[in-house]
Amino acid sequence: MAACGVGLLIRLSLRVQRSQVQRPLRRLLSCPGTVAADLRREEQSSGNAETGSEDRTPKKRFSVVQNERREQAQRTVLIHCPNNINEKKFLKFLSQHGPVNTHFFYESFGLYAVVEFCQKESVTSLQNITRTPSLGPEAAIPFKSRYFNLKLRTSVNQTSELSSIQCSNQSSPSSKKLYQLLCCAESVDDQLNTLLREFQLTEENTRLRYLTCSLIEDVAAAYFPDCAVRPFGSSVNSFGKLGCDLDMFLDLDEIGKFTAQKTSGNFLMEFQVKNVPSERVATQKILSVIGECLDQFGPGCVGVQRILNARCPLVRFSHQASGFQCDLTANNRIALKSSELLYMYGALDSRVRALVFSVRCWARAHSLTSSIPGAWITNFSLTMMVIFFLQRRSPPILPTLDYLKTLADAEDKCIIEGHNCTFVRDLNRIKPSGNTETLELLLKEFFEYFGNFAFNKNSINIRQGREQNKPESSPLHIQNPFETSLNISKNVSQSQLQKFVDLARESAWILHQEGKDRPSPSSNQPWGLAALLLPSVTNNVPLSKKKKKPASERIKNLLDSIKSSGAENSTATNGRRAISTQA
Ligand code: GTP
Ligand code: MG
């Protein structure tokens, strides 16, 4: 590809932080379908959360977003750079292989650049001039990936130019910063929107997630050339927090489709294949081989564990360069469909994501959720609870899954492994809710609702949007929306559920009291959401003892201790008074 001037070639740089970059982007590009247009839509939809969903911007289908992002990732490379790199010269060097569409830098045990070319051929051109390193006494496994290491031929002192590189932030704000932001907010609604803005995945982080999947796809493609590795879960369902894991799904269905299209006439060609006793065994065998491959040849893939006997077999590993903890599954199409459903719910009303993020952060701050599997409530279950609660409002803020099914047309029909997963996929066909309740009210009511929910006899069911009798005796029953005989919270113990209920009641009480007597913003006292994220004073007291103490006394103690320790101490990370929201 002929070299052109860098100024013309670099159409859009994402190298500065999101908050700084969005304004110039808006001026630069206004055509639909561009990254800037997407960003603008995101900005709008998170900015108008006070009342109903008045945002009438046409919203993209999940599959369209997934396909666009995947294609974008295939034109993208990841480069480990020397710290003293000169950005201008770096881009000029890359543009010899074709125009660069966007790029950004980030830090993760070194400096990395994510570079998206305009054309796929540029990646091949770059690969063609790249050498396999000689490592002295060690030997390299020659794998031509899209993850490169850039070295400077001569070590030039470029300190003066170093300052020009701005790195995109890939992590959530510190407890201290979050605390300050929440305390400076104008209202509880503002607090919830602030928390969403600070924790949601940035454009750059999302790109890095799709790129990581694409890099893993290159490895898997060595065995299955037409496979796709697709992200699912919170990386794509719009509820992902910076730092959340990267759930991937090895999709081999395209291979079957391709051969079916090629078949014609009276002849039917089939591949000779090996047969195994069940789909599960096939999945285990495939993941075993891909896991081995990632372990032996996957650049940057470390700590590879093959967890093949789990209910959903998976390969778990760390992708060092991106810093993502990855879970690779196969034959997991229903989970992808669940992600699409959550994406739809998140996009239908701007209050949904703000509420889900706050509830997730609240649960994490009080150790109701954990990154270690166990008897805890999961983020997925919490999201279902928020959706269910919003379906129960009057008028409802979210429609039921059964209603979404009635809006579906023939193209939306989707049956996976005998389960009906049909629902309308065009967001623009769903009427916005007329409900105008504030986030503050919704948060308080959420805690009140679940603080008094009859968990002993009722099940949460987003398909019908109403409580149902529990079909089994698990403490918490949340019906799996597609595999309706399954309970997604079967793992939750009675004591964990009780802890959730106690904390929900306490939080409802705090918000209720504050409604009457809110500390002034200048008093430096944690209030609203900030107060809810502080560890409960009763956290370590056995439940039986807690019940004896009147709630008012507990809250008084909490507020007294906040007053006496002051704002400075409240932000200290000594584990006692820090707001802990990290996943
Ligand atoms: P994070 O905690 O931010 O990672 O949220 P997440 O939604 O990505 O959850 P997780 O990584 O645990 O699971 C990934 C996806 O798998 C979820 O979004 C669901 O689509 C699906 N999933 C998780 N747990 C269950 C479950 O118990 N049952 C079913 N059917 N699907 C689940
Ligand atoms: Mg996840």
3D structure, described in words:
This protein has 583 residues and is an alpha+beta fold. Among the domains are: 62-132 and 142-149, RRM (RNA recognition motif) domain (Alpha-Beta Plaits); 350-398 and 433-520, Poly(a)-polymerase, middle domain. The chain has helices at 6-9, 18-28, 35-47, 62-74, 87-94, 120-128, 159-162, 175-184, 188-199, 203-220, 253-262, 279-297, 333-348, 350-365, 379-391, 401-406, 439-451, 494-516, 529-532, 543-548, 551-570, and strands at 12-13, 76-81, 100-107, 111-117, 147-149, 228-232, 246-251, 301-307, 314-319, 324-330, 415-416, 419-420, 458-459, 468-469. It has a 5-stranded mixed beta sheet with strand order 1-3-4-2-5. Helix 2 (18-28) packs across helix 3 (35-47), helix 4 crosses helix 10 (203-220) and helix 13 (333-348) packs across helix 14 (350-365). The chain is globular and about 70 Å long. Residues 1-54 and 537-583 have low confidence and may be disordered. Bound molecules: guanosine-5'-triphosphate and magnesium ion. Residues 232-234, 237, 240, 244-245, 247, 335, 338-339, 378-380, 480, 483, 488 line the site of guanosine-5'-triphosphate.
Keywords for this entry:
disordered N terminus; disordered C terminus; 21 helices; 583 residues; 5-stranded mixed sheet; binds magnesium ion; alpha+beta; globular; binds guanosine-5'-triphosphate; Poly(a)-polymerase, middle domain
* Helix content class: 40-55%
Bound ions, cofactors and other small molecules, one mention each: guanosine-5'-triphosphate, magnesium ion
For the record, the CATH architecture of one domain stands as Orthogonal Bundle
How much of the residues is beta strand, in percent? 5-15%
Q: Please count the helical segments.
A: 21
Determine and state the CATH class of one domain.
Answer: Mainly Alpha
Shape: globular
CATH topology of one domain: Poly(a)-polymerase, middle domain
Secondary structure tally: strands = 14
Distance between the termini: 44 Å
Structural class: alpha+beta
Specify Rg, calculated over alpha carbons.
25 Å
Overall average pLDDT = 82
* Sheet with the most strands: spatial strand order: 1-3-4-2-5
Specify the biggest β-sheet: 5 strands, mixed
Low-confidence stretches: 1-54, 537-583
